[in-house]
Amino acid sequence: MTRRSCAIYAVGTVCATLLILGIGLYAAQVFRTLMLNRLKKEIVLVEGSRVFESWKTPPPPVFMEFFFFNITNLDQVLAGEKPEVKQIGPYTYREYRYKDNVSMVENSQKVSAYTVKSFVFLRDKSVGDPFEDTIVTVNIPAWAVMSTVKSSFFKASALAFMMAGLGSQPFTTLTVNDLLWGYQDPLLSKVALTNPDVEPVFGLMHKKNGSHSGEFVYHTGMQNYMDYGRVATWKGDSQLTFWTSNQSNSINGSDGSAFHPLIEKNERLYVFTPDLCRSIYMEFEKEVEVRGVTAYRFTPPRSVLASKDENPANEGFCITPSECLGTGLLKVSPCRKGAPVVASFPHFYLADNKYIDAIGGMAPQREHHQTYIDLNPTTGVIVRANKRAQVNVLIEKIGGLPLTRKLKETVFPVMFINESVVIDEASAARVQKLLKIVDLVPNLPLIFVGLGAIMLAVLIVLLIRARKEKTKTEDNTSYSPVTDKEKDDGQNGTYIGLTEKADPQT
Length: 506
What we know:
The chain is α+β, with helices and mostly antiparallel strands. It is built from 13 helices and 19 strands.
């Protein structure tokens, strides 16, 4: 075998090997599978993992905005007319959060932690001074106490006498700071004298600055990447006790700070939130891009807070059959010491129109009042989120309390929050770098295909050259007689030799 033949054979073998290997690996997605398996092992809540430190101390800044509904026609409301309110806000606070007392449990299959939050007021992002601005609003402590005596005319009458002596009314005027962070309420102070379980200080965010909402135990995701960040227990319990069905009392999903990698559009993501005393779910809405990072937007659908008639699965959130509100509302009295507090989305977004129409000044808009979270589907990293919720109070007539006689029964808005976060530039750059690696590795077989294509081109060139040289050699050769005997042989069939042609010039 000549050197040229050996070269052609070698190039052909290498070419075929590269093409078969490259196409086979790419079709089988071997490198992609290896990369995704590596990603699943990296995104776990254990010391030294890629995400553990950022989980304990999230780098992007979180902002908490408070918006209040100021009553503009209080006298008319007391006379039984439709309330008119005006939104005032935002009063913005920088929210600092970190995981405290972090410890691994069950052989690193789970991790326990307390999420501590603290708030610092940002004047440049707010409409006014919370120590000076006042809000005319529902007297929540008064309604909390009044709701405890509504089943007894005698107790209600006694309470009416007490409230008259203290000057306590169904509505009150407070500074933003007092309404948020707490003030000593005279009625609660009086009740606390005979009931030590009653806290004399009330505030919508009372005791929430520099505190936590209890111990969480999370799955680390070591056994199953789908369990990454999923809540195992809260305050030592794997089930709630507030509601009337096991399904409603289930603690599902994460706490909203972490989501598993490799998210699919058809998934239903669950989040457990202590503020609502329940788990909610979110569904895919659309694809978005935040700081160059692709993300899937998930948002709670209408069915999350739908009435039991619209969504029978929500019947367990009815405290009693008579205390089951319509679509868009959730009465959270069981975890608010019986206070008639009702949760909803801002401006009764996604709620029945009757709640919107009952209050002048309500104008629900998806852009401003929708709760959503934007997640990078490959890593599960939160790139943007807006958690929006509204605090309302159920207003109703209570026998024995003359102050409520003319009031219309309605769900009265007090305040709504917008807790927002957007990934910072440094974190976005790290995610982009990781995504480039994730995208590059599965395409490595294409390098083999490319090299195989190059070798195929070389093989074709070698074959063409070999063909040309063979043709040239054949053109430069002829048959000529070797002996005189061959010349005389008419058959020319025995003595044939291959010799070069004689030059016709010679």
